[in-house]
Predict the structure.
Amino acid sequence: MKIASRLLAARRTAEIQPFVVMDVLARAHQLEAAGRRVIHMEIGEPDFSAPAPVVQAAVRALRDGRTAYTATLGLPALREAIAAHYACRFSTRISPERIAVTAGASGGLLLTLALYVNPGDEILVPDPGYPGYRHMVRAFEGVARPLNVSPASGFQPTLEMVRASWGRRTKGLLIGSPSNPTGTRIAKTELDDIARFVESRGGVLIVDEIYQGLVYADKGGAVAASTALGLPGEVAVVNSFSKYFCMTGWRLGWVVLPLSKDNARMRAFEKLAQHLFICAPSVAQHAALACFLPATLKILERRRIEFQRRRDFLVPALERAGLGVPARPTGAFYAYAACPGDRADGRRFALELLEREGVASTPGIDFGSNAARGYVRFAYTCGMADLEEAARRIGKFTASRLASGRPGAAAIRPRGGAGARASARGARARRAP
Ligand code: PLP
């Protein structure tokens, strides 16, 4: 019998791009195995582990054998605790019936897209943006249409862009705020206008609020996390315990669906969840009940302040090293930086920075194709001592490229004011042959 040599994998798999950062990570591991010390700024997860009250609740759940499947939409007590959190933090009252607990934001996004996307439906997604958005849309036979966002709008969509891109097949818009990879947030008034426009077109607005609690003030000012819940129209909100609550590997998140007659949206979502997931991890759900305790929130707020301190250090340090941060991050834990040089190649920059100085970062091309080639993303998910060392190494790397006069290197222009110019002159002086 002849064995078919034809690839049996479905066509959609050919359109799913691999993460280039995995090449960076693999090389980082090789270097570490050879004894080099690598500073990891490529991975998008907090360096803090789950807060102690959450761990204790998980241990209790394990000891008590609370490990069986839960209800598909999650433990009723957890859905109520999430609803209470919205009431307490955001003064937004929602019924727990509108909340579904999911396997991370990933599970939540998958189920939300499965709920709304018919084959051929277009979903607008920001570029650069979280790559999962476009791949998940594709997985459900939808078409992810990029919205080319730029520093001019803080790498967030505007009403104008959405209006201009909305076509006959457009079903909705999916955005993240704060965003990965840029750490920027959409202005409340802009999102409000967009929500009204999407409503007028009978579409759905999906807002990924996974970095919701991680927002930072400038110059000692106050900052308040916000939510898209309460905006007009068909608005679905996705969230997670991964980032603010520091529980990436616990695989837990949630979705809030719009109000609908007889809660029909949630019924449809539940059917999908029954067959695709059965339920979210049960021990994680029992543990997450401790997430909203005052003692836990106090720990998490201290960590948020620490992330803000790191951002305040890293952004000017990158600028002094000649990288540009054209839209100041005000949330998440990322700085999206333009590599020095007119024809900069972020992938090459990331690989060389790793090779020469042992700092791992993520090439911009992982987040789209809109001017992404010249960017790299740094995650400030390491302690201050490592961050200071990383800044020193990045500065050394860019200075040596400048001195070597390699293509593109001549265009390195430090963008951090007088101190930066002085440091670049110093670097040139030290390195000049
Ligand atoms: N959405 C964004 C913007 C992310 O950055 C991530 C993970 O990095 C996810 C969703 C998926 O997160 P989770 O761990 O909750 O599945």
Notes: The longest helix spans residues 294-320. Confidence is low (pLDDT under 50) at residues 407-433. The radius of gyration is 23 Å. The first strand starts at residue 39 and ends at 40.
